[in-house]
Amino acid sequence: MKRVFSGVQPTGNIHIGNYLGALKQFVELQNDQECLYCIVDLHSITLPQDPKELRSHTLDVAALYWAVGIDPKKSIIFVQSDVPGHSELAWILTCNAYTGELSRMTQFKDKSRGQESAPAGLFTYPILMAADILLYDTDIVPVGNDQKQHIELCRDIAIRVNNKHKGTFTVPDGRFLKEGARVMALDEPDKKMSKSAENAFSRISLLDDDNKIKKSIMRATTDSDGIIKYNPSEKSGISNLLTIYSAFTGVSIESLEKKYDGCGYGDFKKDLVEAAVTALKPIREQFNEIRHSQELIDALKNGAERANAISEKTMKRVKENFGLGI
Ligand code: AMP
Ligand code: TRP
Question: Which of the residues 8, 20, 192, 261 has an alpha carbon 20 to 30 A from that of 66?
Answer without folding.
Answer: 192
